[in-house]
Specification:
- Helix content is about 15%, strand content about 35%.
- The protein contains 4 helices and 12 strands.
- The strands form 2 sheets. Strands 3, 4, 5, 6, 7, 8, 9, 10, 11 and 12 form a 10-stranded antiparallel β-sheet that branches.
- Strand 3 and strand 4 form a beta hairpin.
- Helix 3 packs antiparallel against helix 4.
- The longest helix has 11 residues.
Length: about 200
């Protein structure tokens, strides 16, 4: 069990290959203070791109790393946002949120910096997340309104904290939370979401 747990942790949170700071060997080093967007193509033959970064999640007294993934398919006007976690390491029960017949669906509250919070209903599935992923993660997903998506692509959003809070499945329960420092370089994100912003890529400056 310990070996499996280590594999899941290591696989999910391998540092991603873009610049946070540079070591003497010119190798890029990523730290919590210098996150990056990793650009992926989830389906090799498909047109969809996804931008991924890392942060932290919390449930009660348990804390664990988490992934944030924002994706856009050219034929779908709405971008998607996914929060990827390992529920068992947080002591969080994912069952009420899993699948089409889930008994709970949020809401998930999202706050960017000092902007007003927005709420969305979520859907949850188990998935093999990301190019470095070697184990299962639980993925909580929503559709992102264009206005919020456009703001994340602006210079103003760089370095701000994106906070997520998922309402508990039962009354009186604890929320699941996560926070991400939006990378200073958002070129990868802008490339991934460009089709969902429209031809002019409005509000990306």
């Amino acid at each position: 069990m310990h070996a499996l747990t280590f594999t899941l942790i290591a696989a999910l949170f391998i540092p991603f290959a873009q610049a946070g700071e540079k070591a003497a060997t010119d190798t890029h080093v990523i730290t919590d203070a210098n996150p990056v967007w990793l650009l992926e193509r989830p389906y090799p033959e498909g047109p969809m791109l996804a931008a991924r970064t890392f942060g932290g999640s919390a449930y009660g007294d348990h804390h664990m790393k988490a992934n944030l993934v924002i994706s856009c398919h050219p034929q779908n006007p709405n971008a998607g946002l996914s929060l990827e976690i390992i529920p068992q390491l947080l002591g969080w029960d994912a069952d009420p949120f899993e699948g089409k017949d889930a008994s709970a669906n949020g809401p998930l509250s999202i706050t960017t910096g000092t902007r007003a919070a927005v709420e969305h209903m979520v859907s949850g599935v188990w998935n093999y997340g990301g190019m470095f992923q070697m184990g299962l993660v639980f993925e909580l997903s929503i559709s992102v309104p264009r206005e919020e998506l456009a703001y994340w692509a602006t210079d103003a959003s760089r370095g701000q904290t994106l906070t997520l809070s998922l309402a508990p499945a039962t009354e009186g329960g604890k929320p699941l939370t996560a926070s991400f420092l939006l990378p200073a370089n958002n070129n990868g994100l802008k490339k991934a979401i460009q089709p969902c912003l429209g031809p002019a890529g409005a509000a990306t400056r």
